[in-house]
Design a protein that fits this description.
There is one protein chain. By secondary structure, the chain is α+β, with helices and mostly antiparallel strands. It has 2 domains: 2-280, 2-methylcitrate dehydratase PrpD; 290-426, 2-methylcitrate dehydratase PrpD (60s Ribosomal Protein L30, Chain: A, 2-Layer Sandwich), CATH 3.30.1330. 45% of the residues lie in helices and 10% in strands. It has helices at residues 21-30, 37-57, 61-71, 92-104, 124-134, 138-158, 169-184, 188-202, 216-236, 252-255, 293-306, 321-326, 343-346, 350-360, 371-374, 377-383, 392-398, 441-452, 458-468, 476-480; strands at residues 2-7, 74-79, 112-113, 117-118, 263-268, 312-319, 386-390, 410-416, 421-426. The protein has a 4-stranded mixed beta sheet. Strands 1-5 form a two-stranded antiparallel ribbon. The chain has a two-stranded antiparallel sheet with strand order 3-4. Strand 3 and strand 4 (117-118) form a beta hairpin. Helix 8 packs antiparallel against helix 9. It starts with a strand and ends in a 20-residue tail after the last helix. The mean pLDDT is 96. It comes from Glycomyces harbinensis. Pfam families: MmgE_PrpD_C (PF19305), MmgE_PrpD_N (PF03972). Monomer. It catalyses: (2S,3S)-2-methylcitrate = 2-methyl-cis-aconitate + H2O. Residues 20-264 form the MmgE/PrpD N-terminal domain.
Length: 500
């Protein structure tokens, strides 16, 4: 790996294209290096994971609305839409949109946390949609996905967006555009322009994950994927992007991030170095924001030791800066303690999540979020006794460069009414590669079966898994069939008419 120093430049400095971060990302995208076997296997796992969480969300209104929008844009050859029939094809940018919303709706697929946050599996829908549209095979598909992961992980390692209240999709637009560029075998100059366009048009504020969180939380990454496809199309036609998009005098760094004096370091593979970043990412066992994963596991472990939860006086979660400020008390969001809050808001409230996990000793992607569950009197009472505190030790471990010490959990101190305490801590989620029950192919398939049950027929599940488990060896026709169809009439959801 080579670390690239990135800063803002005055226009008079005339920063050469070859010294710009967007060009260096493009160079990674066009490197013809082969995909390692273990990386290809993990890509298959994440294709399965995306399909699992998409299947579980197909009846939800945001997903149904996105699907309706996509189906209003039929196109041949086109790409498939999760839930629609196998013969249905839409324009690839709209397939990326609909499938991206389905994947993100439940906040239940993979994650990478470093200087910033990300869900790198969001790269898969746009890359897959273009692969299906252009009739490309599994080898091309895997190469494109590997690039998407590599670039998003690199940007997340090097550039913090959250500090400046910029939403994490600003790293997704460039990574998805680069992934599509790899898939199509484009030259560096074209990928460079596509990356710049995608960044410029997907840099948005973080209000989508703040306060009263709406369904746009799921739509935002799908928007970045759709924009990335369109950016590649424009770049292929010879249209350019703002330049230098990161380093310019009025560019992203100078005006939206750290300012003219800021310095960032982005690690990227050198020419000929395999793209292995996907192996540093991890998926979720529970449908909730990633920083709650380990704490859900800890709540399930603590509950039997506490006994009567009505005797709890206070629960203090000592954790990292990010956890405290994004999903904890430090966010200063009153909605995080409101029983009438949206599912999307509760998903970003460790105060709610920890209380429910203590009571139920479980977590479910639907039952744990129902209004009835959120309004339960005992839950509300316990919920309002939970608070988070930033602990410098956990903040340091969150950013520790040593993967054996890096941690996304915390220490929980439960004080009972009689003054006794129950204390425990957890570093990483059980499903994390360093956790108690790391996810492997078997666990990805189990998750898929559990979430697809009752939505997708068993025979359709079998057909999809057969393809996903050998994704790097699929021919072009099989890539086009890398899709989940629901039985006719199975996807009933309340939707309203729009423009299309």
């Amino acid at each position: 790996m080579k670390t690239h120093a990135v800063r803002a430049h005055a226009s008079v400095e005339d920063l050469a294209r070859e010294d710009q971060l967007a060009w260096r990302l493009a160079q990674v995208a066009v490197d013809p290096v082969a995909v390692d076997a273990d990386v290809a296997e993990m890509i298959g796992n994440r294709v399965i994971d995306n399909a699992a969480v998409a299947a579980a969300s197909l009846r939800r209104s945001p997903v149904a609305n996105a699907r309706a929008q996509a189906l209003a844009h039929p196109y041949r050859p086109g790409a498939g839409v999760f839930g629609a029939g196998a013969d249905v094809r839409v324009s690839p940018e709209w397939a990326a949109w609909a499938n991206g919303v389905a994947v993100r709706e439940l906040d239940f697929h993979d994650t990478f946390l470093a200087a910033d946050y990300s869900h790198p599996g969001d790269n898969v829908p746009p890359v897959l949609a273009v692969a299906q549209h252009r009739g490309l095979d599994g080898r091309d598909l895997v190469r494109g996905i590997a690039t998407g992961y590599e670039i998003q992980v690199a940007l997340v390692r090097g550039i913090c967006l959250h500090e400046h209240r910029i939403d994490h999709i600003a790293h997704l637009g460039p990574s998805a555009a680069a992934g599509v560029g790899t898939l199509l075998g484009l030259d560096a100059a074209t990928v460079y322009q596509a990356v710049g366009q995608a960044l410029h048009t997907t840099t948005t504020t973080r209000q989508s994950r703040k306060g009263a969180i709406s369904s746009w939380k799921a739509y935002a990454p799908a928007f970045a994927g759709k924009i990335a496809v369109e950016a590649v199309d424009r770049a292929m036609r010879g249209e350019g992007a703002p330049s230098p998009v990161y380093e310019g005098e009025d560019g992203v760094i100078a005006r939206l991030l750290g300012g003219p004096d800021a310095r960032y370091e982005v690690p990227l593979p050198e020419a000929g170095e395999p793209k292995r970043a996907i192996l540093d990412t991890y998926t979720k066992e529970h449908s909730a924001e990633y920083q709650s994963q380990a704490l859900i596991d800890l709540a399930r472990r603590l509950a039997p030791r506490i006994g009567d939860l009505s005797k709890v006086a206070e629960v203090v979660i000592r954790t990292s800066h990010h956890t405290h400020n994004v999903i904890g008390t430090g966010a200063n969001d009153p909605q995080k303690t409101d029983p009438g809050a949206s599912r999307e808001t509760l998903d970003h409230s460790i105060l709610y999540i920890f209380a429910v996990a203590l009571e139920d000793r479980d977590w479910h992607h639907e039952r744990s979020y129902t209004p009835e569950r959120a309004h339960r009197e005992s839950t509300v009472a316990l919920w309002h006794k939970v608070r988070t505190v930033e602990d410098p030790e956990w903040t340091d471990r969150y950013h520790d460069p040593d993967p054996d010490r890096r941690a996304f959990g915390g220490r929980v101190e439960v004080t009972l009414e009689d003054g006794s305490r129950v204390v425990d801590e957890i570093a990483v989620a059980d499903a994390h590669p360093k956790g108690a029950r790391p996810f492997a192919r078997e666990q990805y398939i189990e998750k898929f079966r559990r979430l697809a049950e009752g939505v997708v027929d068993a025979s359709e599940q079998d057909r999809f898994l057969d393809l996903a488990c050998r994704v790097d060896r699929l021919d072009a026709d099989e890539v086009r069939r890398l899709h989940l169809a629901a039985p006719a009439g199975a996807l009933t959801a309340p939707i309203r008419g729009g423009l299309f």
